[in-house]
């Protein structure tokens, strides 16, 4: 099934929040000047992930970043629906409209805190540009897009993990290694067990009052 056969495509989030992002206020420099609204070519489009992007090579693009595995359409749509319902996932893509293919992607994830007055932190995840389109500012374009989106959505900061060789790339976009606070540590689970649902809405949990006062 081609992407054009999908009758009702859903967007992961409302595309209007990508309009008029303040690229002039970003520390990144673009030469020539481009933005999410005007990506430099009439056939380039920056937009939220859509359900039909399964057929536009979205997972193939991600496989240039890391192992994706054999993800079925049903699995993709299920994960898409979870992300969409949460309202915290802003998977943003670049499309080559000539071929109707996804050629780049980056994700902003919102992390809700109790600290800093119940603030929100942004996490930059899964940045990739198709290898035949690299070196044309599209990596910078997609990262700056989701970084400005984080700012627009009220995040107090945006963080990322990257390989050492990509530090210059992210520095050129305004990300800094903060002295004394620049370590990433991981623990890896070789054989993840079946996920246990932590959803409290389906059980016999008491309902929280909306207004506790
Ligand atoms: C990293 C990546 C997204 C960059 O995409 P791109 O479209 O080639 O990047 P741009 O053309 O916007 O490059 C922006 C700047 O970063 C530099 N840069 C790009 N890739 C770089 C790399 N791998 N190492 C060092 N610098 C790099 C460019 O030279 C350019 O510098 P300039 O602004 O001084 O000219 C792309 O190489 C990619 O998809 N890599 C594989 C996946 C990956 O590693 N993702 C990052 C995970 S943290």
TrEMBL record:
Q: Which reaction does it catalyse?
A: D-glucosamine 6-phosphate + acetyl-CoA = N-acetyl-D-glucosamine 6-phosphate + CoA + H(+)
Print the keywords alphabetically.
Acyltransferase, Transferase
Organism (species): Culex quinquefasciatus (Southern house mosquito)
The protein's name is Glucosamine 6-phosphate N-acetyltransferase
GO MF annotations, alphabetized? glucosamine 6-phosphate N-acetyltransferase activity
Gene name, please? 6041894
Record lineage: Eukaryota, Metazoa, Ecdysozoa, Arthropoda, Hexapoda
Does this UniProt record's set of keywords contain Transferase? yes
Task: Pinpoint the N-acetyltransferase domain residues.
Answer: 44-203
The enzyme's E.C. designation: 2.3.1.4
The entry assigns this protein to a family as follows: Belongs to the acetyltransferase family. GNA1 subfamily.
Q: Tell me the route in metabolism or biology where this protein functions.
A: Nucleotide-sugar biosynthesis; UDP-N-acetyl-alpha-D-glucosamine biosynthesis; N-acetyl-alpha-D-glucosamine 1-phosphate from alpha-D-glucosamine 6-phosphate (route I): step 1/2
The record's annotation in SUPFAM superfamilies points to: Acyl-CoA N-acyltransferases (Nat)
Output the GO biological process annotations, alphabetical, semicolon-separated: UDP-N-acetylglucosamine biosynthetic process
């Amino acid at each position: 099934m081609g992407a054009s056969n999908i009758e009702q495509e859903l967007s992961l989030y409302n595309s209007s929040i990508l309009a008029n992002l303040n690229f002039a206020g970003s520390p990144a420099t673009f030469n020539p000047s481009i933005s999410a609204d005007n990506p430099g070519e009439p056939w380039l489009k920056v937009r939220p992930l859509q359900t039909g992007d399964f057929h536009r090579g979205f997972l193939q693009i991600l496989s240039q970043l890391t192992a994706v595995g054999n993800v079925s359409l049903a699995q993709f749509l299920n994960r898409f629906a979870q992300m969409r319902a949460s309202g915290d996932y802003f998977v943003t893509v670049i499309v080559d409209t000539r071929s109707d293919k996804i050629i780049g992607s980056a994700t902003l994830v919102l992390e809700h805190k109790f600290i800093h007055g119940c603030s929100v932190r942004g996490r930059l995840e899964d940045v990739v540009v198709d290898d035949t389109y690299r070196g044309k500012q599209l990596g910078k374009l997609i990262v700056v897009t989701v970084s400005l989106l984080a700012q627009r959505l009220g995040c107090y900061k945006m963080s990322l993990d990257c390989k050492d060789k990509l530090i210059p790339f992210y520095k050129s976009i305004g990300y800094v290694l903060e002295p004394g606070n620049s370590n990433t540590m991981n623990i890896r689970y070789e054989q993840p067990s079946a996920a246990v649902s932590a959803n409290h809405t389906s059980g016999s949990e008491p309902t929280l009052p909306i207004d506790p006062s």
